[in-house]
Design brief:
18 helices, alpha/beta, TIM Barrel, glycosidase, eight-stranded parallel beta barrel, single chain, EC 3.2.1.21, three-stranded mixed β-sheet, 13 strands, 13% strand, 510 residues
């Protein structure tokens, strides 16, 4: 199908993020640098997450989330024993965040809702009107400011009550999530037209339910992460079909899921293309294959590998849950767009060692890969974040080739440092990544609808606390009023949005 017609067709589901009337004007390729602009329908936004910025952790009936439990019961796990009890205090200062969004000129704001703030015990028996009211005020204020709300339902902060019932490793989670999603659609769907069910299931499943190094600290390596992934997909599909059946016709919105993952480059001349694909399937295909492939279900390579490894371990069933035909059909196609968070890439090669049944199973062992980085890649403050902008274009092309060019929404991209206002490294990171993104759209004809900066303000960065900063605005965490101050990067992004071009020169603060 012609790319422009393809995007126009999908755009009918995605109003108002995409202005359908302007889509037909797109020129996919341009040789003139002055004409290399982001299309008029392409939108820019910034993101945050509830636990990372809101604070107000025990106000107005809010219940505990798994991150309240982690930071309060195991404070030694977080740098400087930081927590999100107050954070940027956006529960009381959200209008300051909106002011920052306006100053940069963003079209939309991706934020998450705290499930524990509106349904602390998971279902309607614990509904807190104060929580419902808070998000109504936030959504109304955004719309009044001309900024579209894009809502993530769960961004790591599962209610502790739901976790006590098994959390994402339990089939019960699907029922609770459907109740929660219905509550959101019913209360906010008249104004919210872009929904994201889950954020980064690879990360919260592997680190939260596998290795157990992250919230909710479940250590069930090799089993827990696959159960978590299974019920993440089923709960996402349940919310999608609920919206289809009850709300889509009236509310006219769209639903997707946000995935995370790196692109992979060969570690040596001996690294064959199948190794690159193997790495991508284990990190992204785990979720994209069930949702976007023509056949549905888990990637065949994962099904085969994990079944073989489980048999070697003496198990009577695979550690990867079997997806029934009904589940496969329920999940397949249950997304209007693919949200994707890109930060970094890696080199990859096959691990030559035989599978070791003497050590605990894990997704990494099942994948059988060795990852590395190029010495020339610059590193951010975060130990995991190496600057590889060409990886963004690579992964967008993989989505295009693997899944027939699905509509992709870049839902996070950002750079960490110490919080300096003259954040030249962040400016260069964004410049390089936006150039690669523009090439993917104009030259490669990848279907990408928008770009989201992480983050509008400095926030609580999970186990790293406040030691790593991603914001376009500095937050004074030593002050009770948490003043927000614009950084150089906010000026840079403002220029990109206004000109719809990527400046080639380095701007100076003025």
């Amino acid at each position: 199908m012609n790319w422009v017609k393809f995007v126009v067709l999908l755009a009918l589901l995605l109003v108002p993020l995409i202005d359908c009337a302007k889509l037909i004007e797109v020129t996919p390729v341009s040789g003139n640098a002055e004409e290399r602009r982001f299309p008029e329908w392409f939108k820019f936004g910034a993101a945050t997450a509830a636990y990372q910025i809101e604070g107000g952790w025990n106000e107005d009936g809010r219940g505990a989330s798994v991150w309240d439990t982690l930071t309060h019961d195991y404070p030694e796990l977080v740098v400087n024993r930081d927590n999100g009890d107050v954070a940027a205090d956006s529960y009381h200062r959200f209008r300051e965040d909106i002011k920052a969004l306006q100053e940069v000129g963003f079209n939309f704001y991706r934020f998450s809702i705290s499930w524990a703030r509106i349904l602390p015990e998971g279902d309607l028996s614990s509904l807190k009107q104060a929580g419902i009211d808070y998000y109504n005020k936030l959504i109304d204020a955004l719309i009044e400011a001309g900024i579209e709300p894009v809502v993530t339902m769960v961004h790591y902060d599962l209610p502790q009550y739901v976790q006590n019932l098994g959390g994402l490793a339990s089939p019960l989670f699907v029922k609770y999530f459907k109740i929660y999603a219905n509550t959101l659609f019913r209360n906010y769907g008249d104004r919210v037209k872009m929904w994201i069910t889950h954020n980064e299931p690879f990360d919260f499943c592997v680190e939260g339910y596998g290795s157990g190094i992250d919230g909710p600290l479940v250590r069930a390596s090799g089993v827990g992460e696959y159960l978590c992934g299974h019920y993440t997909l089923l709960s996402h599909a349940a919310a999608y079909h609920l919206y289809d059946q009850r709300y889509r016709k009236e509310q006219g919105g769209s639903i997707g899921i946000t995935l995370s993952g790196r692109f992979f480059f060969p570690a040596s001349n001996e690294t064959v293309p199948s190794v690159i694909d193997r790495a991508l399937q284990y990190q992204l295909g785990w979720f994209t294959h069930p949702l976007f492939s023509e056949s549905g279900g888990y990637p065949p390579i994962m099904i085969e590998d994990i079944a073989d490894h489980s048999l070697l371990e003496g198990r009577t069933m695979s550690r990867l849950p079997e997806m029934s035909e009904r589940e496969r059909k329920l999940i397949k196609g249950s997304a209007d767009f693919l949200g994707y968070n890109y930060y970094s890439s890696r080199l990859v090669e096959r691990d030559p060692r035989e599978y070791d049944i003497g050590s605990p199973p894990s997704l990494d062992k099942d994948a059988g890969l060795i990852y590395s980085v190029k010495p020339s890649w610059k590193r951010a403050k975060s130990s995991w974040l190496y600057v590889v902008p060409e990886g963004l274009r690579g992964i967008l092309n993989w989505f295009k080739e693997e899944y027939n060019n699905p509509l992709v929404f870049i839902t996070e991209n950002g750079f960490s440092d110490d919080g300096q206002l003259e954040d030249h490294d962040r400016v260069e990171y964004y410049r390089a990544h936006l150039e690669q993104l523009l090439g993917a759209i104009l030259d490669d004809e990848c279907s990408v609808m928008g770009f989201t900066a992480w983050s509008i303000i400095d926030n609580f960065e999970w186990l790293r606390g406040y030691s790593e900063k991603f914001g376009l605005y500095h937050v004074n965490y030593s002050s009770p009023t948490r003043e927000r101050t614009p950084k150089l990067s906010s000026k840079f992004i403002h220029e990109v949005i206004q000109s719809r071009q990527v400046p080639s020169n380095v701007i100076s603060r003025g």
